[in-house]
């Protein structure tokens, strides 16, 4: 074997090794650290727009605890999403989508998950609405700059509610308050609208696509300031 041919084979071998390592690293990152999802509905506008791509930190809540205001991706607790029939996919397209999902560049299961904002943690008392149309957590009224309301409406929820969040669960709501089927409107499901923390896949921290929508996703700590102290006072 001449030197040039041997060099070409070594180059191809190294290229294959780099490719395999890159795929394995991508798989490990997707499995344990971060992964991508797309936004399936309008319920989080204008924070998130339908078909936006988001990156989710999967260390939350396993390693890092959840906080009020976090935007989270979670598996359907049961009965939140309508049953749907998977469309037929050509074998080649299915194989490509499987590979992209394997390395975390595609999220074919996005339609089986929901994206909402955490409002109540276990033990929180969430109530709506006061005379100013605000929601409160543990008796502390919330000023929610992320909420989208129809023109002329000032109440942050069309319907009033008064709930205490059970242990191990969350109360979640969409930012597009009059167009979100969230904890308020799933009282007839097995878990009464509460989301088990174990169903949370992770916390969304950035909009990655399209580039024009790129943004970090915060959890508005100033909105929930004083809520923990109020909980400690037994409200």
UniProtKB/TrEMBL annotation:
<keyword id="KW-0378">Hydrolase</keyword>
<feature type="transmembrane region" description="Helical">
    <location>
        <begin position="12"/>
        <end position="33"/>
    </location>
</feature>
<keyword id="KW-1133">Transmembrane helix</keyword>
<keyword id="KW-0645">Protease</keyword>
<keyword id="KW-0472">Membrane</keyword>
<keyword id="KW-0812">Transmembrane</keyword>
<dbReference type="InterPro" id="IPR000223">
    <property type="entry name" value="Pept_S26A_signal_pept_1"/>
</dbReference>
<dbReference type="InterPro" id="IPR019758">
    <property type="entry name" value="Pept_S26A_signal_pept_1_CS"/>
</dbReference>
<comment type="similarity">
    <text>Belongs to the peptidase S26 family.</text>
</comment>
<dbReference type="InterPro" id="IPR036286">
    <property type="entry name" value="LexA/Signal_pep-like_sf"/>
</dbReference>
<protein>
    <recommendedName>
        <fullName>Signal peptidase I</fullName>
        <ecNumber>3.4.21.89</ecNumber>
    </recommendedName>
</protein>
<feature type="domain" description="Peptidase S26">
    <location>
        <begin position="13"/>
        <end position="209"/>
    </location>
</feature>
<dbReference type="Pfam" id="PF10502">
    <property type="entry name" value="Peptidase_S26"/>
</dbReference>
<dbReference type="InterPro" id="IPR019533">
    <property type="entry name" value="Peptidase_S26"/>
</dbReference>
């Amino acid at each position: 074997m001449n030197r040039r041919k041997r060099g070409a084979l070594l180059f191809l071998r190294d290229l294959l090794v780099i490719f395999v390592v890159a795929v394995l690293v991508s798989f490990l990152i997707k499995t344990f650290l971060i992964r991508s999802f797309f936004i399936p509905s309008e319920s989080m506008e204008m924070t998130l727009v339908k078909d936006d791509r988001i990156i989710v930190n999967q260390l939350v809540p396993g390693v890092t605890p959840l906080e009020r205001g976090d935007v989270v991706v979670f598996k359907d607790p049961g009965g939140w999403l309508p049953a749907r029939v998977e469309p037929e996919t050509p074998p080649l397209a299915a194989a490509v989508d499987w590979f992209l999902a394997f390395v975390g560049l595609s999220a074919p299961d996005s339609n089986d998950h929901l994206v909402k904002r955490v409002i109540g943690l276990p033990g929180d008392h969430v109530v709506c609405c006061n005379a100013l149309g605000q929601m409160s957590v543990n008796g502390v009224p919330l000023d929610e700059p992320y909420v989208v309301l129809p023109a002329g409406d000032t109440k942050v929820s069309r319907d009033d509610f008064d709930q205490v969040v059970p242990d191990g669960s969350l109360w979640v709501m969409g930012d597009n308050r009059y167009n979100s089927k969230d904890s308020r409107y799933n009282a007839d499901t097995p878990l009464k609208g509460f989301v088990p923390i174990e169903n949370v896949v992770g916390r969304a921290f950035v909009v990655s696509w399209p580039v024009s929508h790129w943004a970090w996703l915060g959890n508005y700590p100033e909105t929930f300031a004083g809520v923990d102290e109020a909980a400690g006072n037994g409200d």
